[in-house]
Amino acid sequence: MNTEPSTAVWSRTVGRGEDGVLLVGGCDVTALAAEYGTPLYVVDEVDMRGRAAEFRDEFGSAFAALGAECSVYYAGKAFLCSQVTRWMRDDGLSIDVASGGELALALRGGMPPARIAMHGNNKSDEEIAAALEAGVGRIILDSLAEIEVIAAIAAELGVVAPVAVRVTTGVHAGGHEYIATAHEDQKFGLSLATGAALEAMRRCHAAPSIDLTGIHTHIGSQILSVEAFQESAERMLGLRAQFARETGVEVPEVGLGGGYAIAHADGDEELGAAEAARGIAAAVAGAMAAVGGTWPSFTIEPGRAIAGPAGMTLYTVGVTKVVSLEGGGERRYVAIDGGMSDNMRPVAYGAEYTAALASRVSDAAPVLSRVVGKHCESGDIIVRNIQLPGDVDRGDILAVPATGAYGRVMSNNYNALLRPAVVAVRGGAAHELVRRDTIEDLLAWDVAP
Fold it and tell me: Which of 27, 81, 204, 376 is catalytic?
C-alpha cells in the first residue's frame, strides 16, 4: 500500500532510485547519511535558487507592467549562511538581516552592503554601528526610541543613516499568533492607527543624520490569501500620501514584507510567487489610483517560501514501540536521532510535518505512527500522526520534507545534542554549507571547573 506523502511537499529534484532509495539533487540519501551523519539538513540547490528566481522574475514583471520596480530581499532569518548569501547575490536578490551575526554572514557571502536591509526590534548600539559602518542600504526603524539612538550613532560616525519606518498596519494575517506581526499588541513596528508611524516619519525627516528612505511592513507568516496584502498595501500607500500632503515629500520606497505560505504536510496549500505577484501588483495599482502621487519603488521579503520547500531533514530510526490508545486501537512510536533540537516548530507553533521512509521502499501495511525525538520531553514530536510502513525499524532512514526554513537557524543543543550539518546537493554532488557540531565544540564552550 502506498504510504508516500504527496509530491507537493518535496523539493523539485526528489525521486526514487531503482533500488527504492530516495534521491535529491541526484544524490542517494543513504550515501549522504553515511558521509555526513544524521540528523542532516539537505538543501536542494536547484530548487532553492529556482524559487528565488521565480520571485525575482514574477514580481519584477508584474510591477514593471505598472511602470514600477519591485526588488526581492531574501529574508535571511529563514536560513542564512555565506554560501546561500552568494546564491542570492548571484541570482539578483538582495537580503535582509535581523542581527549583527546575520549581517556578518551576509557580508562574508559577498552581498553588496547597499543591498542589505537591517531589521530588529531591539538593535544594540554595536549592531547599529556595524550596519552604518558597512554601508547597508537601509536600517528598518522599529520604535520611536530608536530614532535618537540611530541619529546619534550616525552623527558620531559622520554618516547619514538610511532609515525605513516599520509600520504596524493592523492587518491580521498568518497562522499561529507568534508569527502574526501586524496586530497592535506585539513587539514589532510603529502603529498606523495611533499615529506613531506618522510621528516617526516626521522625526526621521527632521533629523539631520537620518535619511528617510521609505516605510516598511510585515504582516505575518504562512499567509495564503493576497487579500491581506491588498489591505496592507492600501494602508501603507495611504500613509505615504498623508506624509506627502503634510511635508511635500514622497518617500521613495514601500516595503510590503513577505510571509507567503508553503506546504509542510499533505493537504497544505501554498501561495506561489506567480499568484502572489499578480495579486499584490493589482492591489498596489488600485491603491495608487486611489491616493495618487508618483509611484514609489517596492520591496518584498520572501524567506520561508524560498528556503522551506528546498530542504529536508534526514534521521536514523532507533527505538520503535507500540502503545495502546484509549478507546481501542494502537499507535506505533518511531523514535529518531534528533527532534526538537533540530526542528523547534512543532513544539513552538504546533506545526505539522510529514515524513517518508527514505532508505528503501516497503510493501508492509501502513500503521498509525508518531515520529518522536530523543529529548527528555513528551512534547518532543516531529510528526504527530502519520501512516508509515509497519516494518519501519532501527537503522532505517526517515526524511522529513519542507524543513529548509527555520530548521538549522532555530536549532539548539538541548540535552547536549550536537546541531546537524547542512549540505547542499546538485547534479549528483554534495558539499557542506554548515558543518556539524562536534563534542570538541561542546566542550570548548564549557568553562571547566
Answer: 376
